[in-house]
Design a protein that fits this description.
There is one protein chain. This protein has 17 helices and 14 strands. The chain is an alpha/beta fold. The chain is globular.
Length: 400
Amino acid sequence: MPEDGSLPSHALAGAGDRPLGFYLHVPYCATRCGYCDFNTYTATELRGTGGVLASRENYADTLIDEVRLARKVLGDDPRAVRTVFVGGGTPTLLPAADLVRMLAAIRDEFGLAEDAEVTTEANPESVNPQYLAELRAGGFNRVSFGMQSAKQHVLKVLDRTHTPGRPEACVAEARAAGFDHVNLDLIYGTPGETDEDWRASLAAALGAGPDHISAYALIVEEGTQLARRIRRGEVPMTDDDVHADRYLIADSVMAGAGYHWYEVSNWATSEAGRCLHNELYWRGADWWGAGPGAHSHVGGVRWWNVKHPGAYAAALAQGRSPGAGRELLSEEDRRVERILLELRLVDGVPLSLLAPAGLAASRRALADGLLEPAPYEAGRAVLTLRGRLLADAVVRDLVD
């Protein structure tokens, strides 16, 4: 990775024809959730390891330094930024003014598209009506709240700190602040959760009236507190059959409420309610990921930053790129990634992308009821509901 972060010329060729997004990573959390393996840090975990460079108080200025680095690396890039997504961690642990300053830096350096989507994630307990109003006035127009569950005993297993009912209240507060687009994140398959618990969570989320809901099966990652509890026998392991049943419940309930799936784990009430930033990822567009551990992709070059906030800040303070490494994607790499990602979308993937073995596998998947017949006849592989349940297996077959 060059110290100045420069990219090969071929990565910038034709950039004006591709959308550009920014992901801003805020690595701070008040507490660590038992299931989380993201690159996040509590104040205790950072104490003595990063000094003043890793402090939350200085973080916005540090991240703005990387936005300015991005301007130098991308040069006379004519593109206005199409999407900005602030994630974490808990971005809303920072003052609203800091998030607004970070967004303003992108606007100053690159410009924002007239219809740019600007999102921040938020912990329900870390915002209030005034905070949300400040974000909206500062240019944010979408907010994503981590709800996970409406049941207290499920939240306890996940080590979530918010109280049931607070995420729903946040949706109303966001609407009052002028946010047109609001997402709630849900997790299903937590040990101890029942079908009735899951239905109650769905009902609570839908009753709050967001225009977007993400629902993810719980994945037990090695090294997390939840994995250790399962290994000690304190809670049972998650079950794939239970995950499938919960997914079917979710799709049925949300379809009945007017939400339409557009990616395997995401539902929206309209096309305008979809998360455009995630669609940039899924469709292989360009994005710059700023922050510790953030990943970027521009023109077939992918790179990632150092993980620790102290090391990240030190690199920028010394005028160096915080990049830790990068890879150049071959045409074959990009073909395979398109299949991996686009098959999960509602409009699927062109059959023309498939190699002969993959095309043969697609015919078997069609016969097995995993792909929709009408789109297939039109030259696209689109998952059926049963295919969505087996998406990972279908993708593997089509890639092979």
